[in-house]
Amino acid sequence: MADHDVVIIGGGPGGYVAAIRAAQLGLRTALVEAERVGGVCLNWGCIPTKALLYNAELVNLFRRSKDFGISHDNFRADLAPAVDRSREVAERMVKGVEFLLKKNGVTLVRGRGRLQGRNEVAVEPGRETLLTENVIVASGGVTRTLPGVAIDGNIIITSREALELRRLPSSIVIVGGGPIGVEFGYLYHSYGADVTIIEMLDHLLPAEDEEVSVQLEQSFKRQGIKFMTGARVQEIRSGEGGARVRVSADGRTPELKAEKVLVAVGFGANSAGLGLETLNVETDRGFVKVDGRMRTNVPGVYAIGDVTGKLMLAHVASQQGVTAVEQIAGLEPPEMEYEKMPRATYCQPQVASCGLTEAQARERGYNVATGRFPFRANGKAAANGVDEGFVKVVLDREYDQLLGYHIIGPEATELIAEATLGVASESAAGDVIWTVHAHPTLSETIKEAALVARGQGIHFWSGGKR
Ligand code: FAD
Q: Could you give the C-alpha distances from 247 to 106, 171, 173, 292, in angstroms and in order?
């Protein structure tokens, strides 16, 4: 008889959440982790970056303190203590997860897990073999680089090294204008580095609604964060004191010089060496193929998180983890609906969205209405002195259904929660409109955007009587 109902390989936000939920459901659960529980998210991703980005936000607030009638002399902002603080925050969160695993009765096995059979996980270097009814692969992703570009960890770095960079580089080229690229761009610029972001596609944050990307670009320009879009990196050469980056854009091939180059071009699957091939688990370019309830093609073998390549975010990994163990426990959870899940980027102004962009909704043939409400028309944003950006809603006119929300501006990453509930539950704009929002709050913008879409905006002129 198997010793475990479920063995989970990898203790990131996919694996550790799956383990806790499995234990709550009474499943005999083991979690195998090669490094530290919390995975990339707690140790080298979401949490330490957000600690640093909050520092950056404070630095910018101090810089404009005169706007609030507060003056100070000899203002100085150092990156090193910010990095130290971010490491402490990460450490505290990891310890918290270890505590929770213990309290829930999850067996934590330190080492590298590999599927030896459908019901057998071998753990190295301890040579332990775990017998189990079910396995969940939650091994995460691996950082990608560009063809011909070697990460040397000193001049050419990834986010992993950047998170321990205690001395601010005087200049940095960031390859990739996705969430990680723009977050680090904002961070280093806030501390005083000369930043250039290079993005191959037409806009920064190219997966966001185009109006949001354009607004972010305008804001970055105003802040002095340089960027090139529609630009392809041809070559990166590193040498004494820095790197030279040759870029092709608009038929020209300028060469940029910088002390460091941060490569942030995305992630592949961390699926090699897990024994998946021996069981014939189906993969696609390394990503493990799963159905809506995280089942692979092999009965009893599940996969969750970045290794599935669905939507490579921590909260998605966690939800996949809960779904997988509830399926194992026979609860038949709802199938995953990735499009309705929120996405958040923590530069300033913040960006967050859920559901369909306007372009996607039109492509799918919806009878689209949109409403856009600017933060400058919101009392709380004005009171806080942070009123850049807007909330945009995408509606289906026929059924009044909320299809998507796109926010750029103050606390966008918090505001997206209400919007996500509306989109995920397929609510009507009327539901948001008839829900009374506290005043003055930033959340009133969510309701006002829906009103604008109907031509009924109260605090924003949107075209007269309806
Ligand atoms: P991981 O977190 O990668 O965890 C996998 C774990 O498995 C690791 O601990 C690893 O050691 C372990 N492992 C791997 N192979 C084995 C093995 N064979 N045996 C035992 N253990 C193994 N997402 C957000 O939602 N919000 C953010 O703000 C955000 N910011 C980010 C910032 C950065 C700089 C980065 C790099 C990522 C960020 N992400 C963010 C993405 C997020 O970190 C990932 O989506 C998330 O960590 C994926 O979780 P996971 O459980 O699938 O994998």
A: 50, 16, 11, 41
Residues 9-13 have a mean pLDDT of: 98
CA distance 206 to 201: 7
What SS3 class is residue 2? coil
Query: Which pTM does this prediction carry?
Result: 0.97
DSSP state letters, 178-244: SHHHHHHHHHHHHTT-EEEEE-SSSSSSTTS-HHHHHHHHHHHHHHT-EEESS-EEEEEEEETTEEE
| Residue pLDDT, tens place only, 36-51 | 999 999 999 999 999 9
Alpha helices, DSSP H, located in 275-336: 314-328
Q: Which of 72, 189, 439, 459 is catalytic?
A: 439
Residue 439: active-site member: yes
Shortest-distance Cα residue to atom 15 of ligand 1: 139
Q: Is 405 exposed, middle or buried (0-12, 13-18, 19+ CB in 10 A)?
A: buried
Residues with CB under 6 Å of ligand 1 are 9-15, 32-35, 39-41, 45-46, 49, 112-113, 138-141, 159, 180, 270, 274, 305-306, 312-315, 317
164-179 confidence digits (pLDDT tens): 999 999 999 999 999 9
pLDDT for position 465: 56
- Please tell me the total number of residues recorded for the chain in this structure: 466
Q: Say if strands 194-198 and 226-228 run parallel, antiparallel, or are unpaired.
A: parallel
Strands 368-374 and 350-355, by their bridges, are unpaired
Report how far residue 455's alpha carbon sits from residue 100's, in angstroms, rounded to the nearest whole number: 49
Strands 141-143 and 267-269: antiparallel
Give the burial class of 331: count Cβ atoms within 10 A of its Cβ; 0-12 exposed, 13-18 middle, 19 or more buried.
exposed
Least confident window among 237-241, 261-265, 369-373, 425-429: 237-241
pLDDT at 241: 85
Q: Please write the tens of the pLDDT for every residue from 262-280.
A: 999 999 999 999 999 999 9
Ligand 1 centre distance from Cα of residue 310 (Å): 13
Query: For residue 403, is pLDDT > 60?
Result: yes
